[in-house]
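Human: For the file, kindly provide a plain-text protein record giving the amino acid sequence and the C-alpha cells, at your earliest convenience.
Assistant:
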Amino acid sequence: MAEQLSTYLSQLPAIYQDDPEGQLFLGRFLLAFEHVLTGIGDPDDPGLEELLDGVRVGAAHRAGAERYFDPGLRPGRTHAGELEQAPSDFLPWLSTWVALTLRADVPDALQRELIAKAIPLYRKRGTRQGLEELIQIYTGMGVTIKEFRGNFQLEVASQLDVDTILGGGTPFYFHVEVALPTGTRSAPQIAALRRLLEAIIDAEKPAHTYYTLDFTDFPTMQLDVRATVDVDTLIS
C-alpha cells in the first residue's frame, strides 16, 4: 500500500516534484500542515477547512460550522447523527439564542428537544396547551390539565363531574394529572419527578394561579378504557 503524501505537493514548483527523494520528504512534511488546515478526509479528525465547510467520506458525514446552530431534533422526535448536530458541551451556548436556561438534571436528548421547540412553546406560554406540551416533553407521557372556573351555568359553562365540582370549584385553580406506567419508576424517582415538574409549572403558570399535581398509574392498556393514544399512552 502506497504511503499517503500531502496533496500540497501539486502546488509546489516542478523542481520539487521531480525529485523522488525530495518528494517523499516534502510529502510527509506537508501532510502535517494539510491535516491541520485542510484536513485529510477523516470525519472523526477534521481539519480547519472541514470544520467550517463539512466533510463527507462514503456514508460518513460531518456537517460544517452550521452544525453548531442545530440542536439535532428531527421529525418524529428522532435526533441527527453525532457529527451533524451541535456537540453536547455547546448546548448551553445554543440555548442562549432562544433565551432558554437548561437544567443540569435533564439528559442530552431532552435538552436538544427543548431548544428546538422553545420558540413555538413561547407562543403558548401561560396557556393550558403550552403547559401540557412542556410537561409531555419532560415526561414522555401524556398530561391532563383541568381548570375550574367561575360563572357556574350547568350544561352551558359547566358540566357536573367533568369540569365542575359542587362546593369545590375555585377561580384561578387547576389540577395537573400526569400518567405513568405502573412499575416503571420507583418512589424516589417519582419524588424527583414531582420536584422537577413543580419547578417547571411554577415557572410557566400565570402568577395569580395555583394548582395540585398528581400521578396516575395505568397498569394495563385497554384502548378507550385505561389508555388514550397520545394522552397517557405512547405506541412503542
